[in-house]
Please model this.
Amino acid sequence: MTSTAADILIDSLEDWGVEVIFGLPGDGINGIMDALRRRQDKVRFIQVRHEESAAFMACGYAKYTGKLGVCLATSGPGGIHLLNGLYDAKLDGQPVLAITGHHYHDLIDTHSQQDVNLDRLLADVAIYNTRVMGPAHAENVVNLACRTALGYRGVAHINFPVDLQDQGVGERSKRNVANHTSDVLAHRARLPAEDDIVRAAEVLNAGKKIAILCGQGALNATDELEEVAERLGAPIIKALLGKGAVPDTSPYTTGGIGLLGTKPSQEALEECDTLLMVGTSFPYIEFLPKPGAARGVQIDLDPARIGLRYPIEVGLVGDSSRALRALLTHLKRNEDRSFLGRAQTETKEWWKLMEERGSRQERPMKPQVVAWELGKRLSDTAIVSSDSGTIATWFARQIPARRGQMYSLSGTLATMANGLPYAVAAQIAYPDRQCIAFVGDGGFSMLMAEFATAVKYQLPIKVIIIKNNTLGMIKWEQMVFLGNPEFGCELQPIDFVAFAKACGGIGMAIEDPTDCGRILDRALATPGPVIVEAIVDPFTPPMPAKITFDQAKKFAESLARGEPNRSKIVWTVLSDKVRELI
Ligand SMILES: Cc1ncc(C[n+]2csc(CCOP(=O)(O)OP(=O)(O)O)c2C)c(N)n1
Ligand SMILES: [Mg+2]
Model:
């Protein structure tokens, strides 16, 4: 049988190292599905229940493997469903290829069925975006799509009319000569200029109180970050997507920053005289030093992001680990260890507070208890995915990252519902690692049918649902800003244990905090996909970082004791903070 254009597409993807495609069939991609059917031993097709999940899975796969994530959807509605997941990839800078179908090429724009111009629809999200114009066009296009997505860390989109998918590659235009394109991806050295390194080292060597802020771009630079921190006596502060960049057991990190962050992180940024930013575009500039208060050095792969958030003196364009290695050859040891020492003392205090909040035994159970107990039980190579909501606060604060683990959520788009698809993708990529979705009941229920996907493919993911029967984050926002009773936030409770069983998986519930550890142990030890619904106190607000330990404790205690006027007082204190969490 001669190759069809769809065969060429899938063969080319295989050449690019693509091992899995997430998607859902439809008659706009019949030719591609058929090519996949005939290549099941080479490229795995994972069928989802909603194309949005396929795009999230492609994004999560890219985040956790560093490889190209690929999703596939049919014409019209299928492609439309991809959109949110593709924006997640765009905003967090992940290489994702979306392949969509179209109806017959010679009926496009004639009011036919599913006549949606997906290449136009995805024009804003994609950095490479094209419609296949004929069977001989496919190979050229797929090579460029993969190379662009990987090279520029973004979304590429190929829209493929269904009749062209089945055609053999016979006729070519006279300039489209076979074998003129290739699947080679060349790598840059990703090294900053030497004189910039020398100038950056001068700035850092002159500092007394140096702070390092790292993000997603530093996830591969753990050793280098710690070495630089040791040399400079500098605490490492982590933006949310950089949670796994340095383990929380490291003596150098003060943990997260921002509204979901820690007090020692915030103080280090308030007091530093020099700031080294590594692989981060952390958007909440109010947590950065005031302009002029600290001298700035920034490392980023993307030259356009240098100086984006803070007025820096020297920018180093390159890979974080390589740039830090190069810097290290010029950095002197800072003999004044007091700045780091203070950060270390305060970080110990912070973790004591987290433990205290995570160990409360009263009912209703606090969400922090679930996060804390889970954190203690995660394997050394666990991959934990989360969602937007108050859930992200517990994920950020109460689960200490250990070396070898991976953590992610939708950072820049801050969407709900990605947590479960990310966990599915993680488990597909790493069948032997513990893959957890730590999600809210609102986010989970948006795409919860993917739990059936986990059952179908026998993926032993563990889904921990923080069940507060509310869109918690928004509830707090409404009360804080409008002073109004919450509206439209209450969630009709779902019995997630019964749902798990209905999908063919296993469900467990935790209501009593004294049972929490035991049930989590059981869930983690159970083979196959498991849902744990943790029924928690819906009145636990996300605590802002920028209040003192004492205030935080009193605030939490007053809520726990059910102060009659607690709302008004507390809402006022929180008002600045909660909005920015949304
Ligand atoms: C797709 C999407 N819709 C709406 C929002 C706005 N939003 C942010 S957090 C949130 C509530 C999340 O609820 P849940 O998943 O139950 O977590 P909780 O806040 O209760 O912990 C909403 C509606 C969003 N970020 N993404
Ligand atoms: Mg909720």
